């Protein structure tokens, strides 16, 4: 079934996932079995599932408060499904337009026994505007200039956007400066997580809405 060497679980995974490690291992195994076959992950990603995907997503969970969360373009489940398995105190809505991936998310949530997951087969722009969330996440969806207008209507007043980003995040922030207006966003920053767990850096764009801005 597997055509690429899989990555050995790194030692820092136990500390990062804590009590959620058994579920993370189960999710990892399911991705090894079905991810490439279902077109959820590319063949090259098999060799870095832990560090590039699972741990990368898990690091975001510490920046998410209790409450509700929407994950735009969940795909294989990064970061939304990982946050859900780590944070039972967060009700996670996974937004995915492709039916095959949406079905995977439904099936995998059931296999993992997660009670805090809802899957919406939709684009972010199609989510009813009366649905708003304390946190909105995304990973590898679009540059901030396009992603922020897409995500902003889903954020509850006083809520936050927390997006996993790459090394050019500062350039993206500069390009999105015109829409990051202080009357709408009370704080905008880039958080670097990972080194405190002895793993590679993960950059997170974070913006918090002014209460009542919408």
Provide a compact summary of the structure:
It is built from seven helices and seven strands; from the N terminus they run H-H-H-E-H-E-H-E-E-H-E-H-E-E.
The run of helices and strands is HHHEHEHEEHEHEE
Q: What is the spatial order of strands in the main beta sheet?
A: 3-2-1-4-5-7-6
What is the rounded distance between the termini? 49 Å
Number of helices: 7
Under CATH at level 1, the class stands as Alpha Beta
Strand-pairing-aware structural class = alpha/beta
Please, what is the CATH homologous superfamily? Vaccinia Virus protein VP39
Would you report the number of β strands?
7
Output mean pLDDT.
Answer: 93
Based on the coordinates given, report the CATH architecture.
Answer: 3-Layer(aba) Sandwich
Shape: globular
pLDDT under 50 segments (min length 5)? Answer: none
Question: What does it look like?
Answer:
This protein has helices at 13-17, 21-34, 49-61, 80-86, 99-111, 144-151, 169-175, and strands at 67-72, 90-95, 117-120, 133-139, 155-165, 185-193, 202-209. The protein has 214 residues and is of the alpha/beta class. The protein has one domain: Vaccinia Virus protein VP39 (Rossmann fold). It has a seven-stranded mixed sheet, with helices on both faces. Strand 4, helix 6 (144-151) and strand 5 form a beta-alpha-beta unit. The model has no long low-confidence stretch (mean pLDDT 93).
């Amino acid at each position: 079934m597997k055509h690429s060497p899989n990555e050995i679980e790194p030692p820092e995974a136990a500390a990062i996932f804590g009590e959620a490690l058994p579920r993370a291992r189960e999710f990892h195994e399911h991705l090894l079995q079905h991810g490439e076959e279902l077109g959820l992950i590319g063949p090259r990603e098999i060799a870095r599932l832990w560090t590039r995907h699972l741990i990368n997503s898990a690091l975001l969970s510490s920046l998410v408060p209790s409450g509700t969360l929407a994950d735009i373009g969940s795909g294989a489940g990064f970061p939304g499904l990982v946050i859900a398995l780590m944070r039972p105190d967060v009700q996670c809505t996974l937004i995915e337009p492709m039916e095959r991936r949406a079905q995977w998310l439904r099936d995998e949530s059931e296999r993992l026994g997660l009670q805090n997951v809802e899957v919406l087969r939709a684009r972010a722009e199609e989510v009813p505007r009366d649905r708003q969330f304390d946190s909105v996440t995304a990973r590898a969806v679009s540059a901030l200039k396009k992603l922020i207008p897409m995500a902003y209507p889903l954020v509850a007043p006083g809520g936050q956007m927390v997006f996993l980003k790459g090394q050019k995040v500062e350039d993206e922030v500069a390009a999105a400066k015109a829409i990051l207006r202080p009357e709408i966003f009370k704080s905008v920053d880039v958080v670097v997580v990972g080194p405190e767990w002895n793993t590679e850096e993960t950059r997170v764009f974070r913006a918090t809405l002014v209460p009542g801005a919408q």
